[in-house]
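Hey,

Quick one before I head out. I ran the complex with 4'-deoxy-4'-aminopyridoxal-5'-phosphate overnight. Inputs first:
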Amino acid sequence: MHLLPDSLCYLNGQYLNLCDAKVSVLDRGFIFGDGVYEVLPVYGRKLFRFEQHMDRLERSLTALRIANPLRRAEWLEHLRTLITSLADRQGIMDQLVYLQVTRGVAPRDHVMPAGIPPTVFLMTNPMRQPTPEQRRLGVACVTADDFRWERADIKSISLLGNVLARQISADSGATETILLRDGFLTEASSSNVWIVREGVVCGPPPGNLLLEGIRAELLQELCATAGIAFQRRPVPREDVEAADEILLTSATKEVLPVTTLDGRPVGRGAPCGRPGPIYARLFQAYQQAKKHQSI
Ligand code: PMP
């Protein structure tokens, strides 16, 4: 059995021990996966890109027709209470905050019930960053057909498609499953995917088929600062396979190099199968951004 971490969490107006927090079996999150979530990185007790995460939460809630149950200042206050608790009690300064809103508790019926209070849940955990070895050598990924639904832009807690996709790579000891729909790159099971060709960082355009990561806009900014060309355009499989570098981005991975794809080394000339020069520059730029973009 996996041991549950014992830390402070927030549930529907109360601060509780995580082990004591309970929701109804009729919660629509439990019954239908009818809810949304966010995952925010915390560095040195400070939230990274809080406003952008809140904007995305707002978009996801709107897509589900759920009114945002808290004002932004309230979200911030609750997040900070949990962050401070984990930092003070366990000395953990770098954390990963998880927040979830479901439609709430109601008799089981697909139709959205009107006027019920949403369920609001927040917790924080120690940040689990990529290992030094993953940073030095890069990671292995496999590709798979993107069989998920066509509203991947909503940060929905209904993640069965992503869970099934992730397990494909887990089964072969790889770090991520890179998904292609009709022969075009979408994203990975829990990261965005970027290719580098001839010095240009390139990713698929935003739309309903992928989640717009908070690091997508950040990567664009980092590229602009570093003088690296950045493009969003449809990326066919051939371009993924011929890429000089492949990068993953997410709250935990930050920016992470993919050095093996479907068992073959990424890139052609030197440094084939090794993290590339664009990765090295973007990783450095990311570390800088962490220092001055946190609140
Ligand atoms: N796509 C999916 C499916 C994800 O789950 C994530 C991680 N939340 C991302 C992309 C990357 O998003 P972010 O940069 O906001 O972590």
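The helical segments are 28-32, 50-64, 72-90, 132-137, 160-171, 214-226, 237-241, 277-292.

Talk tomorrow,
K.
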